[in-house]
Amino acid sequence: QVQLVESGGGLVQDGGSLRLSCAASIRTSTYYTMGWFRQAPGKEREFVARINWSGEITYYADSVKGRFTISRDNAKNTVYLQMNSVKPEDTAVYYCNAGLVDMIPGRYWGQGTQVTVSS
């Protein structure tokens, strides 16, 4: 059983920065691709970013490209999402996911962390 625990969410002003972390209970490299999704109130959960097992290949949703950066530290079993130049429309619960294929989530999810961007 894989456990993923997100942290780092909170309230941030429009244009500010925030870094989310996702700590995994096992070696993250075992599950190859890791990623982030988000769900805003009244909306479907959507793909944000993914990173392959080595950290060399990343992919982003168009809405966050150029502003967010995903990275991983397999020695610490942790995945990060650096969020810069945030906008009110980035407000959502952000979820870590293990085992993505393209933009299709894998079976393991974290509990989510709330990010609220004030205008």
Task: Write the SSE topology.
Layout: E1 4-7, E2 10-13, E3 18-24, E4 34-39, E5 46-51, E6 58-60, E7 68-73, E8 78-83, E9 92-98, E10 108-109, E11 113-118
Parallel strand pairs: 2-11
Antiparallel strand pairs: 1-3, 3-8, 4-5, 4-9, 5-6, 7-8, 9-10, 9-11
The average pLDDT value, as a whole number, equals: 94
Rg, Cα atoms, Å? 13 Å
Number of helices: 0
Element pattern in H and E: EEEEEEEEEEE
Describe the structure.
With 119 residues, the chain is an all-beta fold. The mean pLDDT is 94. The strands form two sheets. Strands 2, 4, 5, 6, 9, 10 and 11 form a seven-stranded mixed β-sheet that branches. Strands 1-3-8-7 form a four-stranded antiparallel β-sheet, with no helix packed on it. It contains no helices and eleven strands.
Can you give keywords for this protein?
single chain; 119 residues; mainly beta; seven-stranded mixed β-sheet; four-stranded antiparallel β-sheet; 11 strands; globular
Brief sketch in words of this structure:
The chain has 119 residues and is mainly β.
